[in-house]
Specification:
Radius of gyration: 34 Å
Order of helices and strands: HHHHHHHHHHHHHHHHHHHHH
CATH topology of the largest domain: Serine Threonine Protein Phosphatase 5, Tetratricopeptide repeat
Structural class: mainly alpha
Helix content: over 70%
Amino acid sequence: MLRIKCRSLITFLFVYITGAAIVLCTNGCSESGAHKDGSKLLEDGIRNFNTNNTVKAFSELQQAVVELKNDGDLDGHFEACVYLAMVYDQIGQRDQAYKILNSIEFRDVPNYKNYSSQYYLRLMGYYKALFDKNYAEAEKFTRHAIDFSRKKYPGDAAYMYMDMANLAEFYIMSGKRDSAWMAIADLKGQKPVKYDLYLSEMYYCIGRLFYDAHQKDSAYLYFNKSLNVSRKYDAFDNELVTLDMLSKLDSIDNNLVSYISHRQAYDRLKEEIKGNEIHYKVAMLREQHKVDMIRQEGEKSKTIFLLTLCVMFFLILAMAVVFVYIYKSIKIKQKLALLEKRNLDATVEMERLEKELLQLKIAKQGEMLDHTYKENLVMSMKLVEKGKEADNIKPLERLLKEMDRNFIKKVETDFPRLSKNDVRLMCLIKIGLPSSEISKMLNITMDSLHKSRYRLRKKLGLVSGQELETFINSIE
């Protein structure tokens, strides 16, 4: 009986060891095949980044960061991190990009054609100003980038010009306007290049300096120049801030037509950028899930490989190996369960982002309708006030009452002491008209308007520090 048991055990061990050897060879081959060359991943990632294949570049660069770090390739790891940060910057996740750059130190890599060292210095200068408001550090990194370009890329000055324009903007942000003018003068004295994207930033800086000096016409001219260059090279960030500044100038000049045009262009561009960012987030979540799956499969293969080695080298402890195998199998199931949970979380997150994108579009359409309504209301008021029969039918009061009957009824009930002029003034404030428009609408001077507002505050019983607009908008 014992011999039978021993033979059965030996047969079991022989079959088990044979199967283990087969599994060992299979896993060893699959693991070696699954290992990817970090340098090749980096090369493919950079190529896809340069051809705007952002999602593919993200997947390859993320794997390249891990592989090159494991291989001890410090220069390659630095380049992979910088380009991965640039991918995050491109889709609007600049905080994630800054986190990656802060985790590595600057390296003067010999592969200058990839510009990774140059990009690192430029991005760090930009993020020091954007996130830390540390303009001294921003200037330090940017000056380093300018000197680096002058030394390493003597035949390609386009990147150096971009950094010189960025330096001028940092001076403006820190209040050093004289230094900004000097930086711009230095940039203007340089030899022009074919790839003149830097002009977008330079013209914007000149426009900002004229704007701060209250030279509106000059500011308007250079902001328009910046806008043209930005649109030429699809520099959406520069185009966005330039449109915002042009809208401010239109508002100051009361140029309603131009203001609406610039503001609509600003809103469309902002919506497009936001939509693209959400689209890339969803796509990158999918790629992240694929990378996690590869890593989990790699861990699973390594676990089985180690288990097989244990069986081959510790035949005497076959039963112990079985127990270890069972234990490891449980761990593998737990990891697979965790992977399934991550997959589910990723799916939920993708659905949430898609719903957010839909809500964004709906909200934007609502804002545009509301904006159009107010514009039509203002234009209607202006047309009615200029009509020949204004004295007979009092169209302004009729129009205001049509605008919001509940509001006027509430005001007349709660504040019976108010005159018709007071109620009319409250209605004009309620729809958000600026003081200049109200004075024109009521055909009174600004001084008279201020006095009317003062008397209205007293009748409403407002205390010092309480804003009239806030109080009126709180009335439902």
